[in-house]
Amino acid sequence: MSDKPVKVPGPDHPITVEKNPDRVVVKVAGQIVADTRDALSLQEANYPAVQYIPRKDVDLTQLERTDHESYCPYKGDASYYSILPGGEKTVNAVWTYENPYAPVADIKDHLAFYPDRVDSIEILAD
Prior knowledge:
Structural class: mainly beta
């Protein structure tokens, strides 16, 4: 039994997860690390939207899992990856919720990138 608090999104802290209709490309050290047309855009309260990219559209050979973890009472336990070509800047630059809580279950098997730790996260409209 976990003693971690669990919170449900609501009017005071809304969270929505919607398919992003645009192409999302993440670049690090001049290389494309992720390229998808299946990103999920997670909007949490008044924070900037976060693009969650399916694992199938991420070059996992450029990532290395780390021991870093964090916890969100709305989403669950997060695991982290570093992006190898990016060096120090990209340590723990990628996170994933492997067993997210039910309200955000759609982000399972998706990865998210810190915008300030990658060269770019481009959202390209058709």
